[in-house]
Amino acid sequence: MTRLLDARTSQNKSYSDLGSTTILPANTITPIGVVGLNTAGASGNIRVQFSAIAELRLPEPLTPDTVTTIAIVRGTDLTGTPVAYALYGTGNTVSPIQVVTIIASDYNVPNPSSNELVYTLFLFCTSEATRIGMESFNAIAFSD
């Protein structure tokens, strides 16, 4: 029978704020959320499910080669284990507002001796962008 181990949220904003001035520098991988999940009492396979969202305002005029990436890593920095990533291109986008999301899972995760699994959410854009809100990172851990 599946057992819920822990559920956590790292949230910078739950709404959009067009007046925000938090800058995402061009070509700079930036951590925007961290969650630590308690895995004490886990037995068998550990599975972790994720959802995350971030909203950016891209510079105008939009260029068709701008790419935004949202990524999840097991650990606190880029040397951790990559779990998932999603790429978003501007392509034929008309609006400078870009919402990026990711839904992912990490399966058969080894239980660390500390009984805490840490995951970090990263954001990257090839153009300087403004982080305008809706930044939320959710994780839920289960075991057999």
Task: Show the helix and strand layout.
Elements (H helix, E strand, L loop, with lengths): L2 E14 L5 E3 L5 E9 L7 E12 L9 E8 L6 E9 L7 E10 L9 E10 L3 E15 L1
Percent in helix: under 10%
| H and E string | EEEEEEEEE
Beta-strand content estimate = over 45%
Average pLDDT level: 92
How many strands appear in the DSSP assignment? 9
Annotation field: number of helices: 0
| Separation of the first and last Cα atoms | 6 Å
| Largest sheet geometry | 5 strands, antiparallel
Task: Explain what the structure shows.
This protein has 144 residues and is mainly β. It is built from no helices and nine strands. Strands 1, 2, 4, 7 and 9 form a five-stranded antiparallel beta sheet that branches. The protein is elongated, with a radius of gyration of 16 Å. It starts with a strand and ends with a strand. The model has no long low-confidence stretch (mean pLDDT 92).
Summarize the structure.
The chain is mostly beta strands and 144 residues long. It is built from no helices and nine strands.
Question: What structural keywords apply?
Answer:
144 residues; mainly beta; five-stranded antiparallel sheet; four-stranded antiparallel sheet
